[in-house]
Amino acid sequence: VVVSGIADVFMEYEDREDMKQICRELIGGTPTTAQEKYVERSAVRWADEIYAPILMLHSKYDVQVSCQQSENMAAALDKAGKDYSLIKYNDSIHGLHQEDIAVIADWLKKE
Which of 28, 29, 56, 78 could be cross-linked to 33 through a Cys-Cys bond (beta carbons 3.0 to 4.6 Å apart)? Predict the structure, then answer.
């Protein structure tokens, strides 16, 4: 289960000026100088290696992590023939919605 999650660190680096310093410090370079480390942290780049079903919950207008990240991840999972679900909300909340607990519980119960 992923809530408002980063699926592509390359994209997050480019989308948010404030993340550039954080990424450089935590990852040890830029997407150019530490490309392999960014790939390792960008699930969208290795969706074919994911074997667990994935539930993604994301607000369409999230300014901290673009919903496009979840949409791109969904496309990568779809292309890889993986089991996933993407639920998008028409708001800007970055995090859990009140109804998410029930949605997550239902997802975790499925076989």
Answer: 29
Per-residue pLDDT tens digits for 12-70: 999 999 999 999 999 999 999 999 999 999 999 999 999 999 999 999 999 999 999 99
Structure tokens at 63: 């300014």
Strand-by-strand arrangement of the 84-89 sheet:
2-3, 54-59, 84-89
Check residue 79 and report its DSSP letter. Answer: H
Q: How far apart are CA 68 and CA 84, in angstroms?
A: 16
Cα dist. 31→9, 70, 83 in Å?
Answer: 8, 20, 29
CA separation for the pair 67, 61 (Å, rounded): 7
CB-facing half-sphere around the CA of 9: CA atoms within 13 A:
23
Cβ of 93: how many Cβ atoms within 10 Å?
17
All residues at 6 or more sequence positions from 79 whose CB lies less than 8 Å from its CB, including other chains:
47
